[in-house]
Write a structure and sequence with these properties.
- With 337 residues, the protein is α/β, with parallel strands linked by helices.
- The chain has a single domain, classed as TIM Barrel (Alpha-Beta Barrel).
- The protein has 16 helices and 9 strands.
- β7, α14 and β8 form a beta-alpha-beta unit.
- α9 packs across α10.
Length: 337
């Protein structure tokens, strides 16, 4: 796997062509995914190793992506750390009892990933026997996880989270320290189980400004990336709406900086020290036409050639209603750029 174009691009080494994978590539745009999910909840699917492994493999078999991403969810660590939740269709993760006070926080705990999330490790081991491309492990970053815990589920503005982080700094940093510790050890466990690279999803961090990030997140993010470095697996640091945060995100860590579609790769590269980048096609482009997809994708590939390394991806997850033939057109566009 070390010589795969995906891992070489993550390390900033020359590749024969730009590698491609897409976030949520194992998902509802695939008919075989919809079939295997019939009668099964999301939590049941990700918690059953044979099913999770099969779903991970589906887009590799059908479309030939250069990397597989583990079929799981950002929030699976919640249950073993003491915050039961459910993933509701059409809504997302919903926490049974939101964490908003010190007493709530006292009910959370440090957990051992090999025990509390043993099904994830088993899924990875199954996949490593089947895959011919690298496997990406992942989880949510502390701010994004904290937002789910505090808001109780998905939020448009994360106002409870943004309020608590300023009015209750002791509570906030205690929560961040716990989440950073669990996140680090969970990703370490995924790498030990066989993941070739890991991505830290900070999906909601774009609601913050740089000064708040530095004060409330930076030390905890550094803890994670510094703790992962000795294992040698490339790390991808991704968030959405983060054009104003790219400098501090690079300072926090990550071998590859993920960029969403709100800023071009060229402009993003002006904000950070030379580094491999991942991105950054707008997922909505995949709802248009093969010709538009080709033009936009090949523009991004050309931009990426001026970077130390480039992994083609979407700026966020693929939409479930994306036509399969448009994903095939995307693959062809990147392969032939």
């Amino acid at each position: 796997m070390r010589d795969s174009r995906f891992l070489k691009a993550c390390r900033g080494e020359p590749v024969d062509r730009t590698p491609i994978w897409v976030m949520r590539q194992a998902g509802r745009y695939l008919p075989e995914y919809r079939e295997i999910r019939k009668g099964r909840s999301m939590l049941e699917a990700v918690s059953t190793p044979d099913i999770a492994a099969e779903v991970t493999l589906m887009p590799i078999r059908r479309l030939g992506f250069d990397a597989a991403i583990l079929f799981s969810d950002l929030t699976v660590p919640f249950t073993p750390m003491g915050a039961p939740f459910d993933i509701k269709e059409g809504v997302g993760p919903v926490v049974d009892h939101p964490i908003r006070t010190q007493a709530d926080l006292d009910g959370l705990c440090r957990f051992e990933p090999e025990d509390g999330l043993s099904f994830v490790m088993e899924t990875i081991r199954i996949l490593k026997r089947e895959l011919t491309v690298p496997l990406i492990g992942f989880t949510g970053a502390p701010f994004t996880l904290a937002s789910y815990l505090i808001e109780g589920g998905p939020s448009r503005d994360h106002k409870l989270t943004r309020t608590l982080m300023r009015t209750e700094p002791v509570f906030w940093h205690s929560l961040m320290a716990l989440l950073a510790d669990n996140t680090l050890r969970y990703l370490q466990a995924q790498i030990r189980a066989g993941a070739d690279a890991v991505q830290l999803f900070d999906s909601w961090v774009g609601v913050l400004d740089e000064a708040t990030y530095r004060e409330c997140l930076l030390p905890h993010m550094k803890t994670i990336f510094e703790g992962l470095a000795p294992l040698g697996a490339p790390t991808i640091h991704f968030g959405t709406g983060t054009a104003a945060l790219l400098r501090v995100m690079q300072e926090a860590g990550g071998d590859v900086i993920g960029v969403d579609w709100r800023i071009s790769l060229t402009d993003a590269a002006k904000l950070v020290q030379p580094t491999p980048m991942q991105g950054n096609l707008d997922p909505a482009v995949l709802l248009t036409t093969p010709q538009i997809i080709k033009e936009r994708a090949q523009n991004i590939v050309r931009e990426g050639r001026h970077l130390p390394g480039h992994v083609f991806n979407l700026g966020h997850g693929i939409y479930p209603e994306t036509p399969l033939h448009n994903v095939e057109a995307l693959m062809e566009a990147v392969w032939t750029a």
